[in-house]
Amino acid sequence: MIRIEGLTKSYGATQALRGVSFEVHRGQVVGFLGPNGAGKSTTMKILAGFVTPTSGTARVNGIDVTADPVASRRLIGYLPENNPLYEEMMVRDFLDFVAEVRGIPRERRAERIRNAVDRCGLRAVLGKDIHQLSKGYRQRVGLAQAIVHDPDLLILDEPTTGLDPNQIVEIRSLIKELGREKTVILSTHILSEVQSTCGRVLIINDGRLVADDAPERLGKGEGGTVTVVLASRTGALLQADAVRAMLEGVAGVTGVEMAEGEGAGTLGFRLRYGAEDIRRSLFEAAVRADLCLLEVKRQHVSLEETFRKLTGGEASRGPQDPGTPSLAA
Ligand SMILES: Nc1ncnc2c1ncn2[C@@H]1O[C@H](COP(=O)(O)OP(=O)(O)OP(=O)(O)O)[C@@H](O)[C@H]1O
Ligand SMILES: [Mg+2]
């Protein structure tokens, strides 16, 4: 559906893209992550045919978006960053206008608009001016204008930015639903959004692609932590130092720190491990030491850690997401 090869883009002295290549197959929902200024919007604008690349090519369904923007735009629905809309227009008139500009034949317009309105839940606000709408409804209007011509590919630049947690959930489920029949590429700063919505994640940093994988596979093989709670099997008093030394000796453990236990007679630890799974040797070591494992909980390196590592970022003020932790470098 999308084939991008060696894409570069310079704005004067600023190199926004430094050679980005990737493919997206039909039916995928792809999350585009990256710190502020990484080049997400630039890539999306090029795909949508609004910005010309300096070099490289972007194809949608085999059509070069630079050589034939009219044909490629027909296949694409685009929700730009900040969702610019005609504030003074009524929702109904705005969608009429978009349908006309999109070249939908007059006899099909009403039906296409009805479909977009129903899918985006806009019936109740059709008679309102856009500037009267809440952000969530504005975003729905943005999505409706993106799907009115029934495109195969949706390009959504930060579709949930600025929404409250309830609206985020609503827009997300709408996107998921659209993703059942369309190819979707969406950018976001909310890492959990990628985990819940996307089957694949692309991470871009400083104009280059630095990761491309399923969200649950990113960071796999890089280890993580195992939290354990231990008790004595014999009723003997546990010596924290001795237990710690035992845990440090378990094959594959790279670090041990104390954590919460579960009350009297128990000890808790957080173990770091590298590539190999330590749980089996942990169990055997515990049995040898006459210890009982009350809890063993493994956590892979999180998407957040992977993101920070790949983009060299310190956690900092992420824009706009009151409810969910967000990240930006
Ligand atoms: N029209 C423009 N003129 C000059 N520089 C631009 C222009 N648009 C983008 N840039 C620069 O290109 C780089 C990439 O910007 P882009 O908007 O693609 O980043 P982004 O990943 O979408 O960031 P954000 O997360 O903040 O939306 C940045 O350094 C930005 O300042
Ligand atoms: Mg952007």
How would you characterize this protein structure?
The chain starts with a strand and ends in an 18-residue tail after the last helix. The protein has 10 helices and 14 strands. It is 31% helix and 29% strand. The strands form 3 sheets. Strands 6-7-8-3-9-10 form a 6-stranded mixed sheet, with helices on both faces. The protein has a 4-stranded antiparallel sheet with strand order 2-1-4-5. A 4-stranded antiparallel sheet has the order 12-13-11-14, covered by helices on one side. A hairpin with a 2-residue loop joins strand 4 and strand 5. 37% of the residues are buried. The protein is elongated and about 85 Å long. It is of the alpha/beta class and 329 residues long. It folds into 2 domains: 2-218, Rossmann fold; 224-310, Alpha-Beta Plaits, CATH 3.30.70.260. The structure holds adenosine-5'-triphosphate and magnesium ion. Residues 40-41, 81, 157 line the site of magnesium ion (MG).
CATH topology of the largest domain: Rossmann fold
The CATH class name of the largest domain reads Alpha Beta
Structural class determined from secondary elements: alpha/beta
CATH architecture classification of the largest domain: 3-Layer(aba) Sandwich
Task: Give the helix proportion (percent range).
Answer: 25-40%
Mean pLDDT equals 90
Number of helices: 10
- Which band does the percent of strand residues land in? 25-35%
Bound molecules: adenosine-5'-triphosphate, magnesium ion
Compressed to H and E, one letter per element, the order equals: EEEHEEHEHHHEHEHEEEHEEHEH
Can you say what the CATH homologous superfamily of the largest domain is?
P-loop containing nucleotide triphosphate hydrolases
What is the overall silhouette? elongated
